Amino acid sequence: MKVVSTFSPSSSVLSSIKCRLIANSELEFLAVGKLDRLDVYSLQPEGLKLECGLQIWGRVLAIKAIPVDDSGYDNLVVLTDHPDPELIFLSYTTGGKVVPELKTLHHLSLYERNARPAEFFNGMLLDPSGVVLVVSCYAGKLKVVLLEGGGYENDFDVSIPELSLLALAFISSSSDELCLAILHIDHQQRLQLLSRDLDVSPNHEQFSPKPSTLLPPTPLPQKSFPGPFASDTLPVLIHIPAPPSTTSVNAEAQQGGILILGGKRIIYYDLATPSAQLKAKGKSSRTEKKKKEGMKRGDKMEVDNAKEKEGEREWRKRKVAGWVEWPWSEVTGWCKVAGGEEDLGNRFFVGDAFGRLAMVSVDLSQEKKIILLALGETSPATTFTYLTSQILYLGSHYGDSQLLRVNTCPVSALEEPTLPVPRDITTITSSQLTSLAMKANRKGKGKERALEMDVDAGDSSGTKKESRGLIVLGKGSYISVLETFKNIAPIVDAALVDTDGSGQHQIITCSGGRNTGSLNIVRSGADFQTLAVAEGLCDIVGIWPIRALFEDTKDTHILVSTLQDSHLFRFEGGSRLARVCPSLTALVTNEPTLALGNIPRRRLQKARPGQNSGSVYVDSSLVVQVTKTGVWLAEYDMALGQYTKAGDGWVPGRVQGVGSGWNGRTIVAAGVNASQVVVALNSARLVVLNLSEKDEFNIFAFRDVGDTSAHEISAVSCTPLNLSKNYIAASFWGSNCVKLFSPEANLDRICEPRSLPALPCSLLLHNFGQSTNTKDHDYYPHLLVGLTDGTVVSYALKSGKEGLVDQNIFSLGDLPVFLSACQVDSRKTVFACGSRASILFWEKETLRHSPVILKDIAAASRLNTSSFSSCLVLATSNGLLIGDIKDIDKMHIRSIPLGLDNPRRITYHNMLKMYGVACVRSEPVRHGEPESVASSFKILNETSFSQLGQYDCGQEEEITAVHTLLVPFDEGMSPCFAVGSCRYKAGETEPTEGQLLVFWVHSGGSSAKLAPVTSTPLNGCTYAFADINGMIAVAVGSSVVVFRVVVTSDVSNTPSFALHRVAEWNHNYYVISLVSHDTTLMLGDAISSVTFLKLDGTRLEILAKDYGPLWPVCLQRWSDTSIIGANAEHNLFSFTLEESELETALKRDGSFYINDMVNKFIPGALTSFDKSDDAVLQPQQIFFTSSGRIGVVVDIGPEMSLHMTELQRNMAQVITPTGGLSHTKFRAPRNNRGRSDLEESSVGFLDGDFLERFLTFPHSSSTVDEIMKGTSQAERLTLPREKIQKILERLQSLH
Questions:
Q1: Alpha-carbon gap, residue 375 to 355, rounded angstroms
Q2: Rounded to an integer, what distance in angstroms lies between the CA atom of residue 661 and that of residue 58?
Q3: Which pTM was predicted?
Q4: In this structure, are residues 334 and 261 in contact, taking their beta carbons and an 8 Å threshold?
Q5: Residue 821's CB: how many other CB atoms inside 10 A?
Q6: Of 122, 741, 854, 1199, which has fewest CB within 10 angstroms of its CB?
Q7: Helix crossing, 300-314 with 274-297: angle to 10°?
Q8: Please, which residues have CB within 8 angstroms of residue 1273's CB and are 6 or more apart in sequence?
Q9: Does 490 sit behind a cis peptide bond, omega within 30 degrees of 0 on the bond before it?
Q10: How many CB atoms sit inside 10 A of residue 408's CB?
Q11: Is the separation of the CB atoms in 841 and 848 below 8 Å?
Q12: 178 neighbors 200 (Cβ within 8 angstroms)
């Protein structure tokens, strides 16, 4: 069974809306729709603040704000996309809760089984009064929803003869007389603009059979609106209302109009005046009368003439009231500039596909001038929302979403044109626009003449251009970015790499598009910020900070121990580290230090009447130092600023009168706390010392704790965990065991867990909670053990006979692990270092670890000085490193912007320490003009991502696949890159020519020579590569070809290569996915399904093939005989190769609707997972989607999978869905016709994100009880609640 969980959610923004969600409040909100989530932000003076979010079981398409009567606040409605379109009505509630939430008011399913989905316009629009909602989901039909009080009231369907809708807009301001403007493509591929009246009154509920006279039908010129049209670049209709100052005198001339965006021109049409409408209705009535009379008389000619006149009237071109050239690419987003006393609803922000932002202003006077003002470049927008005071939100699919301010004057790039405009398009400057406005104040013919002169300035033709608008282009950008919201969509390819061999993987994604192509480095963990470096000291094995007084909070010195000696350093001026001369300190410096710490001074307290005398601890400047030879006491002299000797110390050989066997013993390990010094002597003797009132060390307890299997103690820890009881932990060489002792009971053994998998070298008793009260909820005592094999073992410490329980193992590489307590952001944590470093912390009732990008740290300690507050001091190979750790367990994204170079394929060569990246560059062109596309192959440095070399393809050639090669050469391997390309020719639907190129990289400093050393032509497009038996398999069109790459000669240190064709398979349609194992190839056919092939010498033979119409997009090997994949219908699937005596067949054993397009699978894990005793969860695959989602697929054991399946079933019955889809129905696989009755639920997969919601419910909640009980005795869960929680917490830690 496979569990699908999310590491990084979808980041692409699809829709947004400004709204007011709280009654009697001026607070405004921004609702942002992502693929499967709705986030609500409040508008604060400091920016946007996330208030709440809601998971949507569906694909969010659009959001609208519905006014709640005249109360001044709104509810929200969300439209989800096919295959299960529905409307979800939501309200925002606080209910006295700390975190607000969105609650479902109503949901309306729009799904129709046999209807054809709308080809172009899928969306909804709300009438200006907020009482009618029109939804387009299926061709030839619209859903009309009547609203009341901000919610659902009724709905009905209306038929519409325009099947290929491109855009809709309400053009009436009253709900009593509704009229829709419609832009569509007819059966002859002509664009037509018309309008229809919508009657929503009871017993009518239909569109008018004839076009409305408010906006008479008119064809749109194809040259102004060239096709083809895509769903994200459709034309836009915007209703421009009549100015509110319209009087009865000019009412005929001020009816408002319709603005059309999305073509090579922005066009404005006036709505018909009342008199023009009356005249058109009269003509229509007369024509209709003639038709009826002709039909009554049987006069076919008269009827045909009437129909012909009616058709001519419908396709008659109307005069354009105003227009302006649109000099950029397709329009992808727009919003109205709202607010202010001068808001006439005639100004709009408009953005194109390459992020060029402009403001469109429509002059509602008689001239109908359209002014287009260039503003600057942004991310490519999918949605704009105007917030307030020239601030707008930009949501993007291809780049980062942004919070923008549009300034009144340029703020950057002051010497460059605001935006590029083709030379053949006339523009004016802002100063010329001001001059034009001044001239326009003239009256009569003078005013008209001034306008004409300025509009036609620079036009050599001398012809009059009536109603032509102005393009204002200056220098500098008017846009400043106030806030950026990271987006890594769409992810088209990715690589999982461990560049430094530390075991900490990071993901490199090929993301973005258009003008925001980028590589994104994604990792999870904690950030380490370096503050200071001290070099020159090697072989450090221990670090201890020292305070001037025990109760001080600031450190003044640090003692550093090496394998040979110890060194004392003093902080001067807060940040300067100065070494203290050994002759000026009483601390031992001529031998290594085992332990050190500040301690209080013990004082005898005089007895009060009726009480016995006792001891108290007072603040002091005493420091205890433990070395191999003894325990030493020193005191800090404030006046001299030096450590002086205090007492004679304690040496094992001097002990008399307390037992025997002290002579010849040395100290092998030690620990220090405020009241005790614990030393471990050779031959496994454990001694507890305390300090007397005379500053002398006394033996409090000792015991020989060794046995036949445990002879020597390797480490001890005596950190106090609570106020009532002390513990001492000791680990042993040989037996690999850990024992827990009680110092108050003469070192009696409390417990001993079973042997560890490796030698223990470091111990730490640590309480991850803030409380020291054993009965307090915030008390989490643990024993941590660092092993020599690079792992950390943790135990929870329970009172009573339970002792050490809940063993977990974390891997940190293969070097010995050392532990140090520290504090990060006021949280008690532990820093563990070995081959790599990690922070251990307590969260969500479980011990978790977060990797830190540090390598080969030998020792660590907390540090707190005036200049380095709450920091860490680390021992590196050549000195000390001081820094602090921030953002525990956070996802970190670093972007490498590539601009117009959009990365499409990436591979990492471990031997070369380079990335190979295939890029496609599309130069921005004006809408309707042919694109200029270039392709290149780049190699980048693995750390800096600087470009080392580049290969540019020829015209009409594009790189479609990249791969790394290791070619045998002499007795070594020669590193190469394999690159597959195709050549597009005019008129071809599928490329028939391509080539395979092999690049041998010769690196020389900051650059590398990049040129193909061999190539071979191919009969089609190269889609994928795979290694097989020392050769390379290439998916080419409908075939798979196996090549052997050989080195033919070595000339001037540049070897010559050759490609030898070994085998070929040509029995598929389009092989777009290819993976291998040993001599087996697993391929995915984009039109068909999955095939398994076996390479036998020079032949490719079929093992098994699935013949179902699966439409796979990507595949990856799950095991030796099974695969996992994703298809075009947004499903995950899995196949297993089963062999029997009769046949070998592929069995489809898994299907799961993931609600996203998965483009890539990579074997591996995001983090180093725990090797616990009951490791039933094993991360196997990472997947990447077009919406920017990164997820993991985890393999779960057979027995536990049954329990988790039962848990998911019970949760689906208890948890109320946001919309009308149940969880079971939502995750059922889909096809291009919707759901199948044969597959009513997912198979072989579990929804990890849904299962983890179990952890959000309190233990004692009724919801948990319902889930555990089920709906019958047969559905009662048998797995204990605590065990379920532990499994889900472990699943959560894997992503």
A1: 11
A2: 75
A3: 0.87
A4: yes
A5: 19
A6: 1199
A7: 160
A8: none
A9: yes
A10: 7
A11: yes
A12: yes
**Is the CA virtual torsion 303, 304, 305, 311 positive or negative?**
positive
* Share of the chain residues as helix, strand and coil, in percent rounded to the nearest 5: 10, 50, 40
Structure tokens at 902: 């959009």
| Chain centroid offset of residue 823 CA | 28
Q: Which of these, 681, 684, 649, lies nearest to 665 by C-alpha position? A: 681
The single-letter code of the amino acid at 637 is D
Q: Could you tell me which residues come within 8 angstroms of residue 196 by beta carbon, excluding any fewer than 6 positions away?
A: 160, 179, 180, 182, 207, 208, 211, 212
Phi/psi of residue 804, nearest 5 degrees: -95, 120
| pLDDT, tens only, 874-914 | 999 889 999 999 888 778 899 999 999 999 999 999 998 99
Which pLDDT band, with edges at 50, 70 and 90, does 922 fall under?
A: very high
Q: In sequence order, what DSSP letters do the residues of 1112-1138 get, joined into one string?
A: EEEEEEEETTEEEEEETTSEEEEEEEE
Q: Residue 652, preceding bond cis, omega within 30 degrees? A: no
Q: Which of 1175, 1185, 1046, 1180 is nearest to 1113 (CA)?
A: 1185
With a cut of 80, say whether residue 447 has pLDDT above it: no
CA distance 117 to 121: 10
CA distance 903 to 920: 6
Q: Is-contact 1242 1227, C-beta < 8 A?
A: yes
CA distance 499 to 677: 43
**What single-letter amino acid sits at 1289?**
E
Separation of alpha carbons 105 and 21, rounded Å: 14
- Amino acid at the residue 243: P
The three-class DSSP label of residue 1009 is strand
Collapsed DSSP state (helix, strand, coil) of residue 885? strand
What percent of the chain shows pLDDT beyond 70? 93
Residue type, 285: S
Of the candidates 374, 377, 472, which has an alpha carbon nearest to the alpha carbon of residue 426?
Answer: 472
In angstroms, how far apart are the furthest CA atoms of the chain?
137
- Are 816 and 715 within 8 A, CB to CB? no
- Residue labelled with tokens 């798979």: 1040
In three-state secondary structure terms, 1204 is helix
Cα atoms in the Cβ-side hemisphere of radius 13 Å centred on 509: 30
Residue 6 φ then ψ, to 5°: -105, 130
Number of H helices, E strands in the chain: 9, 91
For 1249, other C-beta atoms within 10 Å of its C-beta total: 17
* Tokens found for residue 453: 């002169």
What are the Cα distances from residue 782, in Å, to 10, 686, 1291? 37, 21, 21
* Contact by Cβ (8 Å): 1187, 12: yes
Whether 1188 and 489 have beta carbons less than 8 Å apart is answered as yes
What confidence tier does 637 reach under pLDDT thresholds 50, 70, 90? very high
As a three-state string, the secondary structure of 488-501 is CCCCCEEEEECCCC
Nearest Cα residue to 940 out of 902, 913, 975, 901: 913
CA distance 1181 to 823: 34
Beta carbons within 10 angstroms of residue 1131's beta carbon: 27
What is the signed CA dihedral for 709, 711, 714, 718, rounded to 10 degrees?
A: 90
Tokens 């993991």 -> residue = 1192
The token pair at 180 is 């829709």
Strands 370-377 and 470-472: parallel
